[in-house]
Structures are given as C-alpha cells and as structure tokens.
Design a protein that fits this description.
With 407 residues, the chain is α+β, with helices and mostly antiparallel strands. It is built from 14 helices and 10 strands. A 5-stranded antiparallel beta sheet has the order 3-2-4-1-5, with helices on one face.
Length: 407
C-alpha cells in the first residue's frame, strides 16, 4: 500500500518509495528502508516535505488516516536499496565542487572568527549575529556533505591553532550531534557553543597559551581563567541560550571531578559539555601545538577510549561517528602505499574509500588512484602523521581532493 506521508510523520522503519514534494532539489538515487532518525533529520534539512511510503515493505508501521493513498504502476520496477546508505552516498561524495565550496567556507570561517575575536576583545561586539550565522553555515555544509568539512578539520596551520581549533570543534560538534539524532535547532546551538567555548583564550597573555613547555603552577592558574572570561565575554553580547553557556562554562569539567573551574562530576556536567570535552580533546591531539606534536586521528580516538575522565558512552559513539580512520586522515596500506581517506564505508569501518598517492618502499609519489578497500585485497595497516613522511597536508589537500576529485 502506497501512501503520501508528510516528513514530520516519517518514522524509522518506514520504506520510502520516492520524494513527492520538496522545496530543494535533492535527488534520491534509490528507494528503501529508513533505519535511523538521522536520515529523517537530513531529509528535513534538505527541504523534503512529503514522501511516498510503501507500508507493505515498512516494518511495523500502519499508515496514518491522514495519509493519502497513491497509485504508481512503476513503483516496484527498481531493486530496493537502503535509503540510509543512499543518503550517505549523496551527502558524502567528495566531488570537486563540494570540496571547493567547503574549502571556501572554511577560509571565510577563519576570517570571520578572527574578526569576531578581535572585536570582542576591543569591546566592539554588541551581538553574536556573525558567529551565529557562521555556525549555521557550517551546519548547512555538514548536512550537504559532511566528509568535505571533516577533511578540512585535519588541515592544520600551526600559526592559527586557536582560530582553527574553535572552527574544527564547531564542525565536529555539528557532525556528532547530527549523528546522535538531535534536531536542527539543538545542533545549531551546540555548534555555536563549541565555536565560542575558547573565546576567553584570546584574552590570556601570549606567553601562556603559546608556551612551548609544561606550564608552571602559576601559569596554569592563569590558563584556567579563560573559562570564566569566556562566559563573561559572551554574556555581554546579549541573549544567549543556557545550552551555549553550559558548553563554554563546563567543557573542561571531567566526570571524575578532576576538571575545572568547579570540579563538577558525572551528571553535574551537561551532556553537551561532556561532548565538547571529547571534541576539544580530540582536535587538540591531532593538532601540532607549541608544547606538543600531533598524533594521528586513529591514535587520538584510541586515547579517548582510554581516558576515564571522559564519558566513555559518548566516546564510543564519537568513535563510531568518526570511523576508525576518519575522513581526511593519512593511512598506510599493506601494499606499502600511503593514502588519504576520502569516504567512509558505512558497512565496514575498516574498509573506507581512499586515494593512494605515495609509495613507502620507493619513497616516491605515485599517480593518485581511488581505491575502494571493501572491494580490494589491500587493507589499512595503520594511521600515520603527515609529518612523518614530510607530507604538507594543506598543499596535498588541494592537489588530491580539490583538483583531482571527480566533478
């Protein structure tokens, strides 16, 4: 039985046959079963208003009395495929245009954030409109093609750590809260909180946050003040949600009480602040900082699972969201090739799609080849740091994922 179902009435377990009404131009390449709320959220964000549901193929859902019956003779002429998988393919294909758009957005984001922090410290900011708009633009891009922005979070400029860290955390927060199934408004607020959580750092003395050695006890006390400073700065900008403020105030708290500034424990820390703590820690570990070299994304994810100060239930979900080898990371293959992960495989986290570019045995760059590891005998041996092989990831990103990605 085929029925027209408004997007607000769509539920996991329903079988979508086709899109009937939308405000955008999303083209679904196959029909199939909706397995998670995340898929529905994505459809909503892309302007889908009404879909055709086949209730004979749906799982334990009866049609609503408000749903209109439809007749489509060609409805069963295509082989069924999972909507969830097709949506991921549509969202995550690293086309040249997607990479260029994401790259341009990221560049603009750094400039906007830089201008905002400068104005904030001069007392010249009266509202948060610019950064709110920035957070929403980042989320729009995540819904369109999250893999493109995921790549960009791993392209590091050692001279712009504070700026890039806040943007990366906002992107990662958007990706993770979308993965967890939160509604768009909550995702926007959580991402804004992540974007703003370290604004107080820009007010600290340069020799504190650029220290190349372990901080002294006195300097550490100064460092910890950035949390309260950040809350005060943001509160001066007008109305701000409790969700955003909780992230700024609590993202350095830890569930065992070892965090700061209030040594909160367990449920005393908001869920979004616990998420922010995980994201903040992860992005710091994969970045070169004045006092510490980066580690590979795979190593960073492993260390998160070993840190009992973090909410391990959320850590496990974050690892699932990112994949064992996150998009944009460099991996070493059994064949001796180096490759950049360009797309996750939702059916096999250990077999993503990669682009090979370097031969370790010959220490030479090779022709760039796209390789689906789920359909190939090669496999990932380990994640690696670009610095270990003198790879300039920023330059290589342009060469591989912008200039040589498919149209």
């Amino acid at each position: 039985m085929l029925k027209a179902v408004p997007i607000d009435d769509l539920k996991p377990g329903m079988y979508i046959n086709q899109v009937l009404k939308q405000t955008g131009s999303l083209r679904m390449r196959s029909k199939g079963l909706v397995k998670h709320q995340t898929v529905i959220n994505t459809l909503k964000s892309r302007g889908i208003q009404t879909v055709q549901v086949d209730f004979e193929k749906s799982l334990n859902h009866e049609p609503s009395t408000d749903s209109a019956p439809l007749s489509t003779p060609e409805a069963n002429t295509q082989a069924p495929a999972k909507v969830e998988k097709d949506q991921q393919v549509a969202q995550n294909s690293l086309t040249r245009n997607a990479m260029k758009e994401a790259n341009g957005l990221y560049f603009d984001a750094v400039n906007i954030q830089n201008g905002f922090l400068s104005a904030l410290n001069r007392g010249a900011v009266n509202d948060l409109k610019l950064v709110k708009d920035l957070a929403q633009s980042l989320i729009d891009s995540i819904f369109d093609n999250k893999d493109a922005l995921s790549c960009l979070t791993l392209i590091k400029n050692n001279n712009a750590y504070l700026l890039e860290h806040s943007i990366n955390c906002s992107i990662l927060m958007g990706m993770f809260t979308q993965f967890l199934g939160y509604d768009r408004e909550t995702i926007d607020q959580a991402s804004l909180g992540a974007l703003l959580m370290d604004v107080g750092m820009s007010s600290l003395p340069m020799d504190v946050h650029n220290n190349v050695e372990d901080l002294s006890a006195a300097d550490w006390e100064v460092m910890k003040t950035h949390v309260d400073i950040g809350v005060e700065l943001v509160e001066q900008c007008g109305e701000i949600s409790d969700l955003v403020l909780s992230i700024i105030a609590q993202h350095h708290e830890r569930i065992d009480g070892s965090g700061y500034p209030k040594a909160l424990k367990e449920i005393e820390i908001s869920e979004f602040a616990r998420i922010a703590g995980i994201i903040d820690t992860y992005d710091a570990m994969v970045s070169n900082r004045p006092h510490k070299e980066s580690i590979s994304p795979t190593q960073a994810l492993k260390r998160l699972t070993e840190d009992e100060r973090l909410d391990q239930t959320l850590v496990s979900q974050f690892v699932t969201c990112m994949g064992v080898h996150p998009v944009g990371s460099i991996v070493r293959l059994k064949s001796g090739k180096l490759a950049i992960v360009s797309q996750q495989n939702p059916l096999s986290t250990m077999s993503p799609i990669v682009m090979t570019f370097y031969s370790v045995p010959s220490q030479q760059y090779d022709d760039i080849t796209r390789l689906d590891l789920s359909a190939n005998d090669d496999e990932i041996v380990s994640g690696v740091r670009p610095d270990d092989f003198n790879v300039n990831l920023s330059t290589f990103f342009q060469d591989v994922l912008v200039n040589q990605a498919p149209d």
